[in-house]
Amino acid sequence: MVEALYTLFGGEGPFLYFLAILASIFAIVLPLLIAVAFAVYFDRKIWAAVQMRRGPNVVGPFGLLQSFADGLKLFLKETVIPAGANKVIFLIAPMITFTLALISWAVVPFAEGVAIADLNVGILYLLAISSLGVYGIIMSGWASNSRYAFLGALRSAAQMVSYEVSIGFVLVCILVSVGSLNLSDIVVAQAGGILDWNMWVFAPVFVIFFISALAETNRPPFDLPEAEAELVAGYQVEYSSMAFALFFLGEYANILLMSAVMAILFMGGWYAPFPALDAYIPGFVWLFIKIAFMFWMFAMVKAFVPRYRYDQLMRLGWKVFLPLSLVFVIIYSGLAVYGVIGNIG
Fold this sequence. Notes:
It is found in: Cell membrane; Membrane. NDH-1 is composed of 14 different subunits. Subunits NuoA, H, J, K, L, M, N constitute the membrane sector of the complex. Helices cover 67% and strands 0% of the residues. The protein has 345 residues and is mainly alpha-helical. The protein is globular.
């Protein structure tokens, strides 16, 4: 993507290359921020529909501008910093969370050759960035100088680390089949139509990945770090105005990222379900449709499934998903070695 823009700008000199990098970043970040605003709206609408309510319906047609009104309200409010808080870390923590949520999108291919950085180790990059996300939450809990916030931060750190292990083993199952860490290569390996998508062969680990993604993004039924009944919103309890908004935006950007990763790993990425449709509808539209479907799944789980207790959450991660994912790594590795699946053997 950067090289294409560099060529478009004239292809001479480091300054134009720098402009091409900036243009490619803005081409991803600006639509992503708009998508996050509408994701919040649709999340509320889906939840309202399940409960037979109307949801946001006042600001703009059908309430479509509600998220922008909420953002303006948060932007205009005063940032209140607790007297005993570590002010520097208190303000840096939401910036870290938001920034990490955005830079994860650098390796996501929206169509063939359309990615800011088409890294050969794209999967490792995503794992590394998602692991760093724990720091923003830990820092916010510690810097708030509140026991509620600190307990919420510790919960979140333990939860994210626990379920990252399962996600890592699920990714290994895909990698032994495809033989590449590059996200574009994983999509190309699923070319040929809906029957060639990984969601069929890797259905058991797809389920594990989806549930682990719910826990990784602190979504219900695993929203224990911000359990309002006992922790009064957890690590976010002392935050207001734009600092709170950055946490909120980062959370939804991560949900969309997980939806995109699942679409790429298991649902053919930018490919249409039937190859004939690729000639009529661009690849990025198919990827958008798949991301929207996975986001709808996230929203429906939030509406239907009651919250877990913390001991149930940790038991599921360490005593169920960890051994299960290890067993599937062995099974899929054996299938790849004997040539039953994948491109290696």
